[in-house]
Design brief:
By secondary structure, the chain is mainly β. Helix content is 0%, strand content 36%. Residues 4-31 have low confidence and may be disordered.
């Protein structure tokens, strides 16, 4: 379920490595207010779906990366991955949920047989619909750590999208009904159509 010919265009202000998929989320013990989309809240929310199995579990609250406001009734995609093996960028997904956040921006509950940490989760807003999808991510080439908060400029067959990458370097999950080329650029400064960062 991938866009064909996906490519990343790197901005002149930041020569940084990209990675399409991986994860993020912090383990926490209480369901408290947070401005992080990746804080693990260990109590299930009544009426919301569950996925996975194991002794450890979390739900998350989706926030706008720029304003930190919660995102109620918003399409989301949530993955929990096993720890990566040597030579692999990430392990296999052990739990996946997608749907709408509730009135407080909360996701369903995911379980795993290991502690759910930031490096093992991807929790992003979904844009568009269809069987083809990508969630661009920016990582530092020196140590592979995510680069948070840069602006993205994404072109797909569904249109052009701009915004701010989240605290784990992810742009939203972009979905499309048809297979096509997708171009993603990450920039420190906001890009405009026709400029160097529009991928042309």
């Amino acid at each position: 379920m991938n866009f064909q010919n996906y490519k990343i265009v790197v901005g002149a202000t930041a020569l940084l490595l990209t990675q399409l998929m991986a994860g993020c989320a912090l383990n926490a013990r209480t369901d408290t207010a947070s401005t992080s989309s990746y804080e693990c809240m260990a109590k299930p929310v009544d009426g919301l779906p569950t996925a996975g199995s194991g002794a450890y579990g979390c739900h998350f609250q989706l926030h706008d990366p720029a304003t930190k406001a919660t995102l109620p009734n918003t399409p989301y995609w949530l993955d929990v991955y096993a720890a990566s093996k040597p030579g692999s960028p990430r392990g296999e997904a052990v739990a996946t949920l997608n749907g709408l956040t509730d009135a407080q921006g909360r996701s369903g509950f995911v379980r795993a047989p290991f502690p759910i940490t930031a490096e093992l989760v991807r929790f992003v807003k979904v844009v568009g619909s269809g069987p083809y999808s990508r969630s661009p991510r920016l990582l530092r080439p020196t140590d592979g750590r995510p680069v948070p908060g840069l602006l993205y400029y994404v072109k797909t067959c569904e249109g052009v999208f701009e915004g701010t990458a989240d605290e784990q370097g992810f742009a939203p999950l972009f979905r499309a009904k048809t297979s096509c080329e997708m171009t993603a650029s990450f920039y420190v400064k906001k890009c405009t159509p026709g400029s160097q960062c529009d991928g042309k």
